[in-house]
Amino acid sequence: MQPRNDEAKHARGAFPLFPVSMAALGLSFLIFMFLAPLGTLIYSSINPSYADPGAFQRFYSSLASGDFEALLAELQLYSGNPMLIAFQDEVLLDALRVSLITSGVSSMICICLGLPLAYLLARYDFPGRRILKTLVELPMVLPPVVAGISLILLLGPNTPLGSFLRQAGWELVFTWRGIILAQTFVASPFFIRSAIASFEEVPVDLELAARSLGASPFKVFRSVTLPLSTRGLAAGWAMMWARAMGEFGATIMVSSNVPGQSYTLTTAIYWKFWAGGIYPSIAAAILLLAVSSVVLLVVRLLIER
Q1: pLDDT tens digit string along 121-144?
Q2: Is CB count within 10 Å lower at the N or C end of the chain?
Q3: Residue 81 has what pLDDT?
Q4: Is residue 63 part of a domain?
């Protein structure tokens, strides 16, 4: 059956207004909200005068006044590539090491404890299940500063639990352990939420079939549920790790901010910005962007294999 002439003409020559409009809006959002800020950050590392337009004026003033010491200091500040400077800065290297270690430990805690919770919320129906899911997702919408205050009120040195742990030799808040607690608090909901969605997509019939063949619940979980939800779990881990790596608000409140001990890349960016302006913080920002991009890209490639 052939379509009418007017319908065929419409199908061939109609202007696809809706998809073009959606593409224009989506690409505009992508460019102005993601590519433009990140591109500006990378360009600032190549062209320091963009980040500090007053640099040329200070150069000229130093030359005109004959203050060659100030001129030399300015030249040393803007000489070299920020990435090379970052890999020569012991403070930034220590901050990178602390960030990688703490985010890795907090990720393992989220997986070991968050995976059973996600499976429970995805596979079993019980009173208060919706309330529990809401509580799990609550840290995603809370300001990180609130997370820091909550941890201090729970585990601070002047609280009942905090003083007990301190007497037992386990001082948590205002140490590097506080960073792990803060990262776990704010990042675990991203993994748990993704894990719940992944488990819910696994057909229950496959699990019941495995049980009917004599497999134990643990074997069903290990051989059926986990393999079928691997991609979702990996994506959730990537989101969780990235959130932990970039955590700042709660971290700066519960850590001692000692370089080399509890000084993360995000706090290094903050302190370098307030100590020396925008340019000294570019190196730390570029370093954090590079590490996060590499890890997320590797995870993406493994997921889509």
Answers
A1: 998 888 988 999 999 988 888 888
A2: N
A3: 57
A4: no
Supply angle C-alpha 112, 113, 116, rounded to 5.
95
Q: According to the model, what pLDDT value does residue 1 have?
A: 46
**Could you identify the residue written with the tokens 């005109």?**
64
SS3 172: coil
Q: In whole angstroms, what is the distance from residue 105 CA to residue 139 CA?
A: 19
Q: How far is CA 1 from each of CA 10, 12, 13, 252, rounded to the nearest angstrom?
A: 17, 17, 20, 70
Q: Which two tokens stand for residue 110?
A: 């989220």
Give DSSP secondary structure letters for 185-251: HHHHHHHHHHHHHHHHHS-HHHHHHHHHTT--HHHHIIIIIHHHTHHHHHHHHHHHHHHHHT--HHH
Residue pair 148/252 in contact (Cβ under 8 Å)? The answer is yes
Buried b or exposed e, range 229-245, using 16+ CB within 10 angstroms: beebbbbbbbbbbbbbb
| Cα distance between residue 185 and residue 250, in whole Å | 9
The pTM is what?
0.78
Q: Which residue reads 């073009």 in tokens?
A: 20
Question: Is residue 137 in a domain?
Answer: yes
What pLDDT is attached to residue 173? 84
Hey, what are 294's tokens?
């590499």
Quote the pLDDT of residue 233.
93
Strands (DSSP E) along 28-183, which ranges? Answer: none
CA end-to-end span of the chain: 43
Q: Which pair of tokens denotes residue 17? A: 């207004």
Q: Is residue 67 a part of any domain in this protein?
A: no
Range of weakest confidence among 20-24, 50-54, 164-168: 50-54
CATH assignment of the domain containing 222? 1.10.3720.10
d(CA 61, CA 58): 5
User: Does the pLDDT of residue 229 top 60, yes or no?
Assistant: yes
CA 246/CA 190 separation, integer angstroms: 13
pLDDT in tens, 277-303: 677 777 788 888 888 888 888 888 877
* Domain carrying residue 295: 82-303
In a domain, residue 62? The reply is: no
